[in-house]
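Predict both folds.
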Amino acid sequence: MKYILVTGGVISGIGKGIIASSIGTILKSCGLRVTAIKIDPYINIDAGTFSPYEHGEVFVLNDGGEVDLDLGNYERFLDINLYKDNNITTGKIYQHVINKERHGDYLGKTVQVVPHITDAVQEWVMNQAKVPVDDDRQEPQICLGGTIGDIEGMPFVEAFRQFQFKAKRENFCNIHVSLVPQPNATGEQKTKPTQNSVRALRGLGLSPDLIVCRSAKPIEMAVKEKISMFCHVEPEQVIFIHDVSSTYRVPILLEEQGIIKYFKQRLNLPIDDQPSDLLMKWKKMACRYERLLKVCSIALVGKYTKLSDCYASVFKALEHSALAINYKLDLMYIDSTELERSTEAENSVKYHQAWHKLCKADGILVPGGFGIRGTEGKLQAISWARSKKKPFLGVCLGMQLAVVEFARNCLNWKDANSTEFDPDTKKPVVIDMPEHNPGDMGGTMRLGKRRTVFKTENSVLRKLYGDDTFVEERHRHRYEVNPELTHCFEEKGLKFVGHDTEGNRMEIIELENHPYFVGVQFHPEFSSRPMKPSPPYLGLLLAATGTLNAYLQRGCKLSP
């Protein structure tokens, strides 16, 4: 097993996840099996209870793990399926060690950070690195891992300082991602932050084999030589990644700077110097992305719109679908509270700007979420999409609110609501699930990959999924559509075309006599891949561009 540790310096959010994923993609294109582990130093057991504004979206895995969004990047780039134990947190490690101590495994010894916590980290990494993540179920050959040097992350840094000797030099490589800022006042690219960052890392006992320098603009050769000289590495060990038009370009930038040749020598890998067809496909995809001329605009109506990372997987799923049909995506984020009547009274300019965005969009998407804030605005957007026959996709809460909107405006149940927002509603069209335990918040939802069975052949989504009788997608919800009231909706044209395997839980809705009005209880964005777009999102983009019927008539084949 070869281990590649990716550390970050200067600032957080520098792009460790994308760079680690891109390196994994390059190694996979050389025929190697790659897995990935993300190390987060927070004390939370997992990311499930975070506000999206803290760390971006919560990514859900097949086994129900609620993890950091970087694991989403790993899955999309490498086309693998990871597990909850591929995300290590301080909370998980300490809980594991404390449980062992309570069990008596340490035989009366004083349990300390060194060696017990650091040993637990190393043991976890070695065990998880062997778990197959590809469809062929073979053991991986390379394990990528990422962490940072905050004060709370010191036990992990110390664990890897020890681990480099345990794994041996030819099996362990450290990549340090740093920032090369360019102040507007001088316009000069500054290397001092990178020098200090590498010095600090060396002081902790880790010496970088590759230094990946992030910058806004391409870095000059003189800067590369300066970093090489002051950071004690060869010039070819300094890699530049400037801001690019799309993340698809990053693996290509890395490959152009000789990273395959370096890894082959440094880790003694049994590979050719040239990448295979997989990287050629990435190159074609990156070039196609940059040449797109036709634009499709989608309005994303949500409540976490100030930070794009809150909807990272949704954005990627839309981007994958737009690229598949040769359109450039114009994603307009609309804060759902700005569509509400209360905003019109407080700030009429914001209100009218939000509605202007919504009205000019080619399609409307209402993603998942929790809590009552902004729900009235989402209901307004859904009502607009339904009545004006605008293509619409509702995901999780978006589907539940589509049911609430239909009940209020088509069934004339004016007090229809979800028990999440009004526990005493007379018409509970959305209810909490019987197995949900309101005591604990963490890990108590219906999570992970579950089967949805189509109950009719006359379904747009079934055709988009390749006419399969069932689909398996990832879930993350506490509430569900009330199965006792579904017959009222079906009589008026809102069809529940997909159920769970028992037939009690409503999974997919479709509205008759509408170009594309679809709601799904699951989160299809978590399974979307750059070369395999998610069918519900693809359907939205096809309907928004007016090409859905032609696509269905071709037997769900994309035009060349």
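Second protein follows, with its predicted structure tokens after the sequence.
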Amino acid sequence: DGLVVSEKVKSNNIDVKIPKSELEAEDKGTEEERPRESDSNILDVSSHYPRDKHISIQRHLADLEKLADLREDERKPCPLCPEEKFKACYSHKLHRHLQNLHWKVSVEFEGYRMCICHLSCRPVKPNLVGDQTLSKMGAHYHCIICSATIVRRTDMIGHINRHVNKGETESRFITVRAPKSSYKVVKESATDVQVLPNHSTPQKTDSYFNPKMKLNRQLIFCALAVLAGERKPIECLDAFGATGIMGLQWAKHLRSSVKVTINDCNENSVTMIKENCHLNKMKVKLNIREEDNGETVGNGEENSDTIEVTKMDANVVMHLRSFDFIHLDPFGTSVNYLDSAFRNVRNLGIVSLTSTDISSLYAKAQHVALRHYGCNIVRTEYYKELAARAVIAAVTRAAARCNKGIEVLLAVALEHFVLVVVRVLRGPTPADDSAKKVRYLIHCQWCEERVFQKEGNMLEENPYQQLPCDCHGSMPGKTAVLLGPLWSGALFNTGFLRRMLLEAVQYGLDEAQPLLKTLVCEAECTTLKHFSTHSPGEENKQEECGVYIRTPNTSAESYLVHGKRKSEEVLRGTAKRQRAEHSAEHPPFYYNIHRHSIKGMNMPKLNKFLNYLSEAGYRVSRTHFDPMGVRTNAPLAQFKTVLMKYSTPTYGGAQAEGPVHLPGEIQLGEEVPAAAVIKVKEAELAEDDKSGVAATVFTESYPTHCAAE
């Protein structure tokens, strides 16, 4: 009787006779292992919270009483207390115990009650009394989301709130994919994508989708659309696909102009990308170089509706293939992928990268910036532009190692990210020219004046002489620091930005249009009221004569002859004509009008102040880096002089804004040192004392503020 059970093995169709005693032992073993799994942190996958939850987590008090199996004629123990703490009793007493000691002090979350538990399921340090080890029975709660045990009720409430704020659900703590019923569909720019419930908090097994990065995706799409207008078709790569939203937008709107490849090294992300492609009626061509051998979904034909999906490391896919457009958007810094990106990118292609490690780039973690970017930075009033130039400097060095130069097309630094878009120029000459634009910055910590260090390798006896301010002579100690290395060239290409603006209007990208208009004005260093949209022919002329570029024309035919003697002659002629007309590069960095405001004075409105600076003969514009920033070629002393002239005293706020005449007849065209401004104020105070009028003392902001501000 012990050998009568047989099973058929599916793989080999062989009848195998197994002793019955062994099968019964295996069944018992599986029954014993199931409760162990329920005690672990790995939760079962379901559309709602896990069924194998702890017995202290119930919806109703009646469910808790069912566990106790209350009967009037029998004594029953409490299911949540040990025998030595609460002895078995009759139903009426056990009902009051469950209600008062467990249910009333529970923590509620989405219809469930996490009751207090007195069982010995929380590891507690033993209490040694002589030779006996007494186990301390501590009351605690079991978290419904992560199965953690927490002692205090207030700590449990805070623990649940942290889960809610992070958007974490039970799918975060499992090792298998969440069911399709837990997905939700998000629509952006006419593209539907499935995302996980915890899409805003990325983990190792989840796909990340951040709605706040919509503006970033629109800017990258506009840059790709401009490149697609220059040459067709182009091969573009989204190296970190996640949900595949960016690559799907490229393929859905640009169609036959692009051949899209979406890559991700996470198996769950690749599966989600394939499902999102089918959701948007796109065919998928798989190229997975691991266990799968080139499986193809659909008919496998390469057309405008086909997206290639790869599952490999981003460095590997960029080493194996060449692309015209590469976008890097990893979690944090992207410096680990720059060498691979510039290795095989095609000539005159575009590399865009999004850096989200803003804590290091914005000088909150300076040691991390030094480690990742090899750059020394401090917190300044222009810290966002400092971050963009630090990223471009790292990009320039990575491109130069591959004998390639760069032309910066766009650099944006906002609250959540730093976006840099560069065009690749092959050859050692463009590489050398780009490397020469990486310099150190001399920054005065007292007045925040700044200037790039002069070219050359010779040491200067007094580097403070390069600063326009005289803080080193009037203040004790060392007043300046050396920042960098940083990119010292232009951050924008005016013609490319204008073409991006046209693409944004054509595809209805409303969020990108205001920012692109600001960027065009910032690139030209002009105010918004002088902004105008040119025709496509004028755009090519603007790109040729506006910002200094390496190619004489933006058409594809001119790109084909780049590097030849004829194109270099045209380039030299264009550069000479550009220098003769005007200096097109925008001034580096900007000043914050609040940072340099005068205490006790009402400063003018920002737009009026821009007009005052423009009337004084300086180039001026607003900047996207700072809503109260002013980009101008005026020195800081002249900036403060104009600001003081058109500021009004706080006690005379009712009078109209107008110029305040300064004694000593200081002209705007003259260089006004900081000491002269202080002397002017002292003279005003002395006149007020002589006339018997109570003087209102005010001082400028920069002598009383430290660099740490």
